[in-house]
Specification:
By secondary structure, the protein is α+β, with helices and mostly antiparallel strands. It is built from three helices and three strands, in the order αβαβαβ. The termini are far apart.
Length: about 120
């Protein structure tokens, strides 16, 4: 039975790229270290929790599991999620505005959840 063509290409020894002095000098010029990114980077922590009064089945399941394990004195109030991301922008206010827009468009269901944002500049 004839073999079909493979979409994977291999490179023979004669076609491999070699490192010549001209190529090496191109990559190792004496321009010094690359300049730092002029746009600040901000680390954003986004905590999403169920709204007060909304049934939280995850919290109930954790509460029941803790009670079965003998930890009946612990009350689980809510189970949420924490998103950690970095954003390239000019100011921390802009990072907060971008995060709020992401929350409204995608990350948070405003009918069931609430969120809090923490922003700090990455040095």
């Amino acid at each position: 039975m004839p073999r079909g063509r493979s979409s994977t290409r291999t490179c023979s020894a004669s076609t491999r790229a070699t490192s010549s002095p001209a190529t090496a000098s191109f990559w190792h010029t004496s321009i010094g270290p690359l300049p730092r990114n002029p746009v600040p980077v901000f680390r954003v922590e986004l905590a999403v929790r169920p709204r007060p009064g909304v049934k939280d089945p995850q919290a109930e399941a954790v509460q029941e599991s803790l009670a079965r394990l003998g930890h009946g004195g612990i009350a689980v109030r809510a189970v949420g999620r924490l998103l950690s991301m970095t954003i390239d922008c000019a100011t921390s206010d802009e990072a907060e505005r971008i995060t709020a827009a992401l929350c409204e468009q995608l990350l948070v269901n405003p009918n069931l959840e609430t969120y809090s944002v923490s922003v700090e500049e990455v040095v």
